[in-house]
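ok so I'm stuck.
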Amino acid sequence: MNGRSRVDPQSLKTKTIGVLMGGLSGEREVSFRSGENCLRALVSRGYRAVRIDAVRDVAQRLDEAGVEVAFLALHGRYGEDGSIQGLLEMMGIPYTGSGVLASALGMNKIAAKKVVRGTGLPTPDYREIGREEPAAAAVAAIEAELGLPVMLKPVEEGSSLGVSKCKDAAALVGGLELGRNQYGTMFAERFVAGREITVGVLEREGRPEALPILELVPKNEFYDYEAKYTEGMTEFVLPARLEPAAYSQAEQVALSAFAAIGCRGYARVDLMVDGAGTPWFIELNTLPGMTDTSDLPAQARAAGISYEDLVETILLTAVA
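replied:
not stuck anymore, here's the structure
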């Protein structure tokens, strides 16, 4: 059952909109920043919006507040992985963003890579590392299969938490041990040298559109958590400095990944463009950040879409 079709868009301003933020993941504070921004935008447009901290008793909080439509400003586990989406489906509350399956696929980087690779899209080779696999054996296999450097990542985490660029075996061992302790299952991904870009996808009138492509030039070695959420730590180039053919190809890869994973409403697709101009799928974010320094609002502004218009457009996809 899909609760998204139960509300007439024209009557939304008579409904109670719950902006779900905070939550239980390592991105809790970032989620509050996204959520407060979205809440202010909705109130400024005349919606009856309320703040909901999506912790363990979230179902009770939704019920007590009389929430009729949920605007999801959650990031990471329990908010972006299909968990809250499944709860909202059971409660019959329409919500923004992708559904249960697409959310789960987008959150699991290995699953997402398998899906997009299955459709013929390029994504870097990788090796998943077992929870109990000895670090020395894993490192030897990674060096043999992928070479160095590699990007070491948690399978299920957001905002670049736990991600590190490992240039030698010692860094890989250290990163692996730390990562498994903090984030669980890890994987190594072949490093792609080139431009780091991100493509926002926004559904308007039922049709996904690629927003202007943003190129990220972080002061750190890659676009890590600090570079994402600390003002001045990343140079944003908008539109990205790509040749026309590569730019067009990147748009198509993003739209194809959005469709392959089954996304709805909006998403952000992260790509690396190598020296030959080939865009490589890295990951897809089904609930991208909406903070003052986040990528999606910047891309929307470049397309002539104000923050308030962006939030309202996203809200409307909950009931389309």
